[in-house]
């Protein structure tokens, strides 16, 4: 994002915030409060990750007094969130004093100050939501809080609406004895990869005899999908009378094993690509880190075409998806003619990678004839 339309003092604060925040804070909207020159921007909406969702706060500077600290406007559902009311919101006096100090000793030349305030406000928001959840008249929720409080990083949130029943959401960072980033050679990820369990408890109504099971969902950074998709994990059912303290250890053990398998699958995909090279030659390009893609140049007589391989994280249980692309035929839009995605060919996950590659190359020999015919027909339709 360009900051040229902000006053320099505000631009420096904003630039530092977006580049150094550990929470992937983003800007959703910018506008001006300057009536004399509305082209000068001095207000913006921050989108801040919280409890596996997001909250939006408006940050209000005054471009005519850019040396002053900003004001903050919180969301309509958080009318009771009043930062720095120590006893009512957060028991951590050090946390509050550091925030108050950052506000009272505002230094417009210190580009780190806005980030310090945002982090302080977010810390107080965590305490505010925890206090709200603790006041819920639901014995199960109170018990769950007591069993997981020793876990670091848990966030919780009250959720309700006009047409929605009340519910409590927990975001639980799963603890595994591994550093996923360090397990992948050449890892390009900027953030430390973590996996969370989202737990949503419907609040028990007075006329309901027994609580319903919570809704469970695994959540991770999008980047992790290159290695491991949490959507492929089958969660164990929630048994009657179960609590999080019972459920989490088995889940963490299962995920740890599956991630080790996912890392080992990288080497298996790499070996398969190397086996293909014995028949198809050196790949034109290949994903060197996760081995999820590879492209080879192939020929059938004088017909030259490329073969694109796409690998899922479930390889070799799931065979690669193929797509052929002609080097000699263009469609009406002057784009190279391509085949549909191909997944129907001889395959067994129990074969050795050499046999997998050999059988697939045999398939390509036959499919090249069909694809050439398809390309010639597409050419005649011009």
Automatic annotation (TrEMBL):
Organism name: Arabidopsis suecica
Protein name per the record: BRISC and BRCA1-A complex member 2
UniProt key word Transcription regulation: no
Family: Belongs to the BABAM2 family.
GO biological process, one term: chromatin organization
Keywords from the named record: Apoptosis, Cell cycle, Cell division, Chromatin regulator, Cytoplasm, DNA damage, DNA repair, Mitosis, Nucleus, Repeat, Ubl conjugation pathway
A GO cellular component annotation in the UniProt record: cytoplasm
InterPro entries in UniProt: BRE
Localization per record: Cytoplasm; Nucleus
Domain of life of the native organism: Eukaryota
Chief place where the protein resides: cytoplasm
């Amino acid at each position: 994002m360009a900051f040229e339309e902000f006053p320099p003092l505000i631009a420096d604060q904003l630039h530092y915030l977006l580049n150094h925040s550990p929470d992937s804070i983003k800007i959703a909207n910018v506008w001006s409060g300057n009536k004399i020159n509305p082209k000068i921007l001095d207000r913006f909406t921050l989108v801040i990750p919280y409890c596996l969702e997001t909250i939006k706060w408006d940050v209000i500077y005054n471009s005519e007094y850019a040396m002053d600290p900003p004001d903050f406007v919180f969301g309509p559902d958080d009318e009771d969130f009043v930062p720095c009311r120590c006893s009512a919101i957060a028991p951590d006096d050090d946390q509050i004093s550091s925030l108050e100090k950052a506000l009272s000793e505002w230094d417009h030349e210190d580009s780190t100050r806005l980030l310090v305030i945002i982090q302080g406000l977010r810390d107080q928001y965590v305490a505010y939501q925890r206090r709200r959840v603790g006041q819920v008249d639901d014995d199960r929720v109170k018990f769950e809080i007591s069993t997981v409080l020793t876990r670091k990083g848990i966030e919780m949130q009250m959720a309700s609406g006009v047409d929605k029943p009340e519910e409590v959401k927990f975001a639980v960072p799963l603890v595994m004895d591994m550093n996923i980033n360090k397990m992948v050679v050449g890892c390009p990820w900027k953030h430390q990869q973590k996996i969370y369990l989202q737990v949503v408890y419907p609040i028990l109504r007075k006329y309901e005899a027994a609580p319903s099971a919570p809704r469970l969902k695994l959540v991770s950074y999008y980047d992790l999908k290159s290695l491991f998709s949490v959507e492929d994990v089958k969660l164990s059912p929630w048994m009657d009378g179960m609590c999080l303290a019972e459920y989490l250890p088995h889940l963490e053990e299962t995920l740890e094993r599956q991630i080790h398998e996912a890392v080992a699958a990288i080497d298996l995909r790499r070996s398969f690509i190397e086996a293909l090279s014995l028949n198809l030659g050196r790949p034109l390009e290949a994903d060197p880190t996760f081995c999820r893609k590879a492209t080879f140049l192939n020929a059938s007589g004088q017909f030259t075409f490329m073969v694109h391989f796409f690998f899922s994280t479930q390889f070799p249980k799931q065979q690669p998806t193929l797509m052929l692309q002609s080097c000699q035929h263009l469609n009406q839009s002057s784009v190279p003619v391509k085949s549909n995605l191909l997944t129907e060919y001889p395959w067994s996950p129990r074969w050795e990678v050499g046999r997998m590659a050999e059988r697939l190359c045999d398939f390509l020999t036959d499919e090249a004839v069909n694809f050439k015919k398809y390309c010639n027909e597409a050419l005649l339709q011009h």
